[in-house]
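Take a sample.
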Amino acid sequence: MGRLLAIDYGTKRTGIAVTDELQIIASGLTTVDTKELILFLKEYTSQETVDKIIVGLPKQMDNTNSESEVYIQKFLVKLQHQISNIPIVRVDERFTSKMAFQTMIDSGLSKKQRRNKALVDEISATLILQSYMSSLQ
């Protein structure tokens, strides 16, 4: 069994989370400069067995796609071209950034630490991954 890998795509930074090999625990992995994302994913998937890539699907409150979906679609085309052997699943990511920020507050992080947008992105990716895993149960 391989890992599940989740992506909280952003135009500048992208948060990444993964599961353990038994797909039980979701953990933040890192935040990557989006320009380096495909290269990072190619290297990671060459070293680790990844069963699925879960990519956040940003929706508005009225269930329409957010403006960032245009950029995500372009990324997905490149990703499928570069890593064609791993299925890609989309998961609604509404409220993950707010939930990530609340998680940081609940964890007792200082205001300075909560301003770390890279950490917010990584936590958001973890929440996307947890959401996907919950949908399987």
Summary: Residues 17 and 28 are 4 Å apart (CA to CA). The chain has five helices and five strands.
